[in-house]
User: What shape does this take?
Amino acid sequence: MIDTHCHINFEDYNNDRDEVIKRSQNTLDAIINSGTNIEENNNVLKLSKEYENFIYPTFGFHPVTSQDSTQNEINKTQKHLIENIDNILAIGEVGMDYFYVKDKKLRQRQKEIFTSFIDIANDYKVPLLMHVRDCEKKAFNILEDYDNIPYVIFHCFSGSLKTAKRIMDKGNYYMSFSTMICYSKRHQDLIKDISLDYILTETDSPYLAMTKEERNEPINVEKAIEKIAEIKNIEKNEVDRITTKNAVKVFNL
Ligand SMILES: [Zn+2]
Assistant: This one.
């Protein structure tokens, strides 16, 4: 069982990070921890060294929380990323968010930044872990120009079934479902028609807990797996086996 996307480096865990991680080690095989800017990318790398062979790093640049960055900061982030390209499992989270960003110019800027990170994934043949919200089809179409990205992951996939079908047709694209599946009717309906062969599981901790007040943690990925098993009427162990196998392949664990 693997949590393929979370932020265990965030300050939300400053008081009990080690306990949270130890707790998850009883159940999980691995945690993939994603950076959102240059400082967090450094923190993610540090944690992966502290918990070697359990916490794995990806370096990213969050489309919403990092959108005010200057070009100089973006360049620095990318230089740092390339310097560490052999230490990370994927580039992400990077992407576009049309839910939070409505302004046309800002959306165009998001696209330019996103594309510059895709270029790196393509040049270095590294998996791409994407945060894409309310523009899944657009992101999919942008990626059509690239041939060398080994795997593409739509983290917290919330697109249409039509886009999901195009994603499945690619063969090396995956959709990640979070603990949100436990309460989101939309995601519960969506996953019914998506093959387990293209599904990954995650928590996006500290976000997306069962209630808004709660802090999520990686061990809760088990709840997502249980819910997927229930919806698809498949044994929990089988859902775990297939989604874990997918994650091992995508992230080369
Ligand atoms: Zn995230």
Q: What stands out?
A: The chain has a mean pLDDT of 96.
